[in-house]
Amino acid sequence: MNEEIKKLSKASHKEATSKWKKIVSEYQKPSVVRASWQVVNSIGPYFALWGLWIYMSLGLSLSLWWALPPALLGGMFLVRVFIIFHDCGHGSFYKSKKANNYLGFISGFLTFTPYFHWRWEHSVHHATSGDLDRRGMGDIWTLTVKEYLESSRWRKMSYRLVRNPIVLFVIAPIFLFLVLERFPSKNAKSREKRSVWLMNFALIAMAAGLISIIGFLPWLVFQLAAMLMASSCGVWMFYVQHQYEDAYWVESEEWDYTTAAIQGSSYYELPKVLQWFSGNIGFHHIHHLSPMIPNYNLEKCHMADPFFREVKSMTLLGSLKSINSRLWDEDSKKMISFRELKKQLRKEEDDLDGAASRKAA
Question: Which one of 55, 188, 262, 360 is most buried, counting C-beta atoms within 10 A?
């Protein structure tokens, strides 16, 4: 696969684009039937689990602990709802632009994410993924080894804190969806900003309605547990799809869209049940190659050409190693851990000491 990528890198951009556009064009056609069924089997169960908790809380007067099983399962369905929201943002879920926008707002409402604002930020992610000179929007904070070593003590501490697994996969996800998504970016246009305030108003109205029915704590426990499950899973998926040892990072002048898609986005081979809940987003190399392919066609596209099937997969167990991918090493062209950096610095120090000793002798 690496040899294929090297050949692809040497090919002209025009040739590469023409080749892959021809392959993926067949899978860019949305299906009303498949899309609508996905809405039913994703949003429907989430509503049903909310209904079950309302019945358990009011009809059976069960303790708050009983909210956790349906809430955590509801969080898994929210991951799937977010993939629908994600596809609507790309305009790939339905053929109709209006249908995508309406469903995008509804699914964004369920996942606490303003549709137009997120769509704008995510488009930047697709246009810059793997570009060292255009980091900072729609991605996870990533420093190179050189940048880290030249950073102040405070910046190093901040970076290590953000990269701590508890912060990155538990605290940050819920903070992102409950707090950060409530405020528009200063660079956003008026429509994107309005979408944030409209979503905030809708969420307040929804919360007020549910609280009036079941009370504050029953609402809070279910909603918080569901969002924690969904946001943690979502951030984990996003992380392993772009943060792994052989990830693609280059400067702007070397950046190529096709290479960034194939080499800079992982193929996350999950057990079928997790693949279903995650809406096939594990075929992330296909998605970045063509965001216009709806999630229900990603696997078919992956299987359609030998090149895609030769992509090295990342398993669920194997993906755990990516937790240690903290810094981009410009020399080895790999993501490395803080421990590996420490070893490198110690080796350099030993080499310098050895050279000094030989010179003195």
Answer: 262
Specify if 126 maps to a domain.
yes
The answer on pLDDT for 1 being more than 50 is: no
What pLDDT sits at residue 14? 58
Rounded CA-CA distance 90/295 in Å is 11
* Position 189 in a domain: yes
Write out pLDDT tens, residues 82-103: 999 999 999 999 999 999 999 9
Give the total number of structural domains in the chain: 1
Q: Does 102 reside within a domain?
A: yes
The dihedral of CA 179, 162, 287, 269: what is its sign? negative
**Among 122, 156, 161, CA closest to 139:** 122
Assigned domain for 330 exists = no
- Spatial CA neighbour of 35 closest among 73, 77, 74, 87: 87
Could you write out the three-class secondary structure of 273-334? HHHHHCCCCCEHHHHHHCCCCCHHHHHHHHHHCHHHHCCCEEECCHHHHHHHCCEEECCCCE
Q: Name the percent of the chain lying above pLDDT 70.
A: 91
Average pLDDT, the chain: 91
pLDDT of residue 136: 84
Predicted confidence at residue 18, as pLDDT, reads 65
**Structure tokens, 108:** 């964004």
Which residues have CB under 8 Å from 166's CB, separation 6+?
none
Q: Which helix (H) or strand (E) holds 268?
A: strand 267-269
Give the model's confidence band at 305: pLDDT under 50 very low, under 70 low, under 90 confident, else very high. Answer: confident
Q: What is the CA radius of gyration of the chain?
A: 23
Please, what is the angle between helix 216-242 and helix 32-54, to 10°?
A: 140
Residue 255 parent element (H or E): none
Rounded to 5 degrees, what angle do the CA atoms 194, 291, 95 make?
A: 75
**Rounded Cα distance, 34 and 280, in Å:** 14
Tell me which residue range forms the domain holding 132: 2-139+162-320
